[in-house]
Amino acid sequence: MEKKRILLLSEGFGAGHTQAAYALSSHLRKLSPHLQTKVLELGSFLNPKVAPLIINAYKKTVTNQPKLVGYVYKQQYKKPINRLTTLALHKLFYTHTRSVVRQLHPNAIVCTHPIPSAVISRLKRLGTQVPLCNVLTDYDAHGTWISPEVDLYLVSSEEVKAKLMHRGVAADKIKVTGIPVHPNFWEHPRHDEIRSRFNLKNMPTVLVMGGGWGMLSDKVVHQLLARWHEDIQIIFCHGRNDKARISMEQDPRFQKENIHIIGYTTEIDKLMEVSDLLITKPGGMTCSEGLAKGIPMLFHSPIPGQEEENVHYFTARGLGELITSLDVVVKWMNTLLHHYPDVIQKREQHLAEIAKVHPMESAQCIMNLLRDIQPSSSEETPV
């Protein structure tokens, strides 16, 4: 019997999209060990010289001009990627996409970013026959995710489903599964082993993150946190931002007991497990990982657009709070210091609720798609 193959396509515009693809890949192989999965950041794979330049330009814009990013997001909010833009993307970066699909011959394609979805949608209009699934990686539904060629949408919440339906997507094409996170985030290893691994103490602990790009830009908040180092353990995780990590390591204000400064790690799940508060950029993936761990969250510097919507979703449910002033941080430090048992009890309550969620729901929906739709891949129209 021929093994089934699933191609998962992402892009490097932030770490969350690709993390979702790898999380799905892990879940799919757990459900079906004989299934073959392949994760690609399509632009970087097909054009490794140009794609990083574009991603770095985007990163600089997000860092230096977040309001511009928000303006563009909102201007295009209700619009799908138009045919002209799709054609331009195809000619500039993805003229070899059809060859990749032919070579890998997937039984289904899953996109965790709207750009590869637009390219595959165009290939489908030109004759490629393959089931296409979009996995939305925020708690919002931007118009660029929407295309008639998409067979299945996996979304984070009922609110996102309603937004897609309002824009004409049929209800039976949308499944509310939550954003897929790596299986490790659903596990609860021994705390003493984790603390030993990272040289941490058994005391109230705050984990500070800036996403995969390490966008820890709020120096005033960081300096405030450092003042609590005698009573509260602080872990600053800078991701791939080595410049910011080295700068903090050399700053005497952070060279204190119980302050830990680290760079990129694949063990964020373990750090969340032994932390009592997460201070983070509100990316969809990080928020979902925090949700799986049941950890309370404080959100800093949301990018106008999807991150603002992520903040709204979690704050409305009492799962996080936006840092609107330093008073919010002080309040939480005092809570950890003086009401620590209450923080632990509330987290246990959250975990009990989260335990009702099926972490492999996204993967199961994709397996169902494979079962229900069985076209043969073909290229009937030249690109």
UniProtKB/TrEMBL annotation:
A GO cellular-component term linked to this record: membrane
InterPro entries, per the entry: Diacylglyc_glucosyltr_N (IPR009695), Glyco_trans_28_C (IPR007235), Glycosyltransf_28_UgtP (IPR050519)
Limits of the Diacylglycerol glucosyltransferase N-terminal domain: 17-181
Domain Glycosyl transferase family 28 C-terminal: 205-328
Keyword annotations of the record: Glycosyltransferase, Transferase
Name the record gives this protein: UDP-N-acetylglucosamine--LPS N-acetylglucosamine transferase
Domain of life: Bacteria
Gene3D superfamilies, per database record: Glycogen Phosphorylase B (3.40.50.2000)
